[in-house]
Amino acid sequence: MIVYDPLWETLKKKGLSTYTLRVKFGISGSTVQRLKRNMSVSTNTLDDLCKLIGCKLSDIAEFVED
User: Fold this and answer.
1) pTM score, two decimals?
2) Can you tell me the distance from the alpha carbon of 54 to that of 66, in angstroms, rounded to the nearest whole number?
């Protein structure tokens, strides 16, 4: 299962919030909710997050065994 726990730590380290994702970076509220619930998001979304936040994919998502 892919989880987005690293995303929340990365945001915290960079002083960002979900509000910043939505308002400043234009990530939709529904996408933020999907990330919070560890639901699937597109690779385009992951690519956008990496570019906007300035981080690697491993700073956003990780695979954990079910």
Assistant:
1) 0.89
2) 29
